[in-house]
Amino acid sequence: MESMTFVLFGATGDLAKRKIYPALFNLYMDKMMPEAISIIGLGRREWSHETLQAHVKEAVHTYSDHEADSESMESFLQNFRYCSLNVTDPEDYFKLEDLMLQREEELNIVQNRLFYLSVAPKFFEVIAANIKESGLSQTNGWKRLIIEKPFGNDLETARELNRNLSEAFNEEEIFRIDHYLGKPMIQNLETLEFANPVLQSLWNNQYISNVQITASETVGVEKRAGYYDQSGAVRDMLQNHMLQMLMMTAMHVPQKISPEQIREVKKNVMEALEPLQEDTLEEQVVRGQYTRGDIDGEEVNAYTEETGVSASSQNDTFVAAKLNINNSFWQGVPFYLRTGKRLAQKSTRIVIEFKNPLKGLYDQEEEQTSPNLLTIEINPNESITLQINSKNLLRDGKIEPVNINFSANDKHLPQAYELLIYDAMLGDPTFFAHWDEVELSWKWVQPILDAFKQNTVPLHLYEAGTMGPDAAEQLVEKDGFKWW
Ligand SMILES: NC(=O)C1=CN([C@@H]2O[C@H](COP(=O)(O)OP(=O)(O)OC[C@H]3O[C@@H](n4cnc5c(N)ncnc54)[C@H](OP(=O)(O)O)[C@@H]3O)[C@@H](O)[C@H]2O)C=CC1
Ligand SMILES: O=C1O[C@H](COP(=O)(O)O)[C@@H](O)[C@H](O)[C@H]1O
Q: What phi, psi does 392 have (nearest 5°)?
């Protein structure tokens, strides 16, 4: 891998501590980092290089599962330097430039520069502009920008953000993290679909009856009420993670496996997504909010009782939707998506339900068959399970559903941030959100945001600890299905 400077805005923050430093350390230990790398941490705090190094060490000890011998740790930490900088102060970027140039010279490395913005989204544009104005982006190597979602707050603000970022960085230089795309099982979808002719031949509307994507969480708003009450489940999960999982599931075979082609087939899915209509939106979208209930035997507050949430909030803590993809592969196959807080279990999974044309053969009282299901568990377990029908020879030969299971659970499976940072360092954009995907996603959810804002669809309350409102059950039941 090429040598580089890794500039981390928000080096003193939570994401850096919990995810970025442990990921960098794991990559270092797995020899997946450049031989020579200059890592410069930034924040307003007046830290010394040593303070940052001690902070990184502590973060690695707390959050990395890699064994850290002291020699490796010390040589890892030697890559770090700190520079105090206020992102809105253009003068501070010259201070940063001095340090960058000094380290590039010391290490004798090309000016390959990766800028990671682990700061609030309101700073993205000012940082990009200051990087450009200060000349930091005029390098004799490459430059890249990593940003975290949210990418805008709606279609209009997302477009504006993108316009402004494009002043300083080209699309090929912008790596938009959607951490779901870093999850090993999501990355594995490509292989599952395209490296298995048996599955690929069934991956269409001739054999599949419906697809269900669930991301359920047991946590509530935690300490993020300020953000979440303005965001809700649609902006927080549906527009990004859920639609990315949909794209990864419904994409059709590309001409070849390359970042450009994978992004192209993902985009095709979004382009074929049937737009929601204002007058029928309620038939396809369920908005929910949790009331008091029980999670793992513990009583929890209603959403409107959470600290920082207004008692009259109409915010969505749950959303379920039925999506139709109007292309020859998926016409007639509903894709059901649901996500919410304070649900019965933490589980992210994709379930492919196959059609059962042979059902009639066995439909006598004693011989019921179940649909074949392919379940891809993404989080917290990682597995692929195929449910088939089989005779139970120990119970009078009755037909029963049994599972063929591949479980990838392993504590050494790389973490999402590890895979994503590695790809960004390499310059591989496959598992980052392209602007086209982001824009098409906002476009598709915009009617939902409008309807929720105008209160033209009901807010269904659900008890914490359940799987959401009854209306979400009815969404699939009226098509003759049930949630798996
Ligand atoms: N934490 C998480 O788990 C996740 C976070 N994210 C996203 O990552 C980003 C960072 O989140 P998180 O780390 O939690 O936030 P924190 O509030 O913990 O950290 C914010 C960072 O920004 C720095 N900062 C704030 N204002 C300025 C400024 N004017 N100039 C320079 N630096 C500044 C702070 O440094 P200092 O105080 O020293 O100035 C600090 O390092 C956000 O966009 C968030 O949405 C995404 C997914 C998960
Ligand atoms: O981006 C987000 O994701 C988390 C859920 O992520 P997971 O990896 O634990 O499934 C969610 O809790 C959070 O609200 C959202 O911003």
A: -95, 105
Q: 380: cis peptide before it, omega within 30°?
A: yes
- Sign, CA torsion 382/387/390/393: positive
Residue 462 CA from chain centroid, whole number: 25
Q: Which residue has the tokens 């890794």?
A: 6
Q: Could you report how far apart the first and last alpha carbons of the chain are, in Å?
A: 43
For the question of residue 61 being annotated catalytic, the response is no
Among 55, 241, 252, 434, the one annotated catalytic? 241
Name which residue sits closest to atom 15 of ligand 2, judged by CA.
Answer: 236
One DSSP character per residue, 189-237 reads HHHHHHS-HHHHHH-STTTEEEEEEEEE-S---TT-HHHHHHHHHIIII
Query: For residue 221, is pLDDT > 80?
Result: yes
Tokens 């003068």 belong to which residue? 91
Assembly ipTM: 0.97
Beta bridge partners, 386, equal: 374, 404
Q: What is the pTM of this model?
A: 0.95
- According to DSSP, the residues that pair with 250 across neighbouring strands are none
| Helix ranges restricted to H, 304-362 | 359-362
Residues in a beta bridge with 9? 42, 117
Q: Tell me the average pLDDT across 41-64.
A: 97
C-alpha 214 to ligand 2 mean position (Å):
13
DSSP 8-state code for residue 259 = H
- DSSP characters for 95-118? HHHHHHHHHHHHHT----EEEEE-
Tokens 């070849």 correspond to what residue?
A: 256
CB of 335 within 8 A of CB of 246? yes
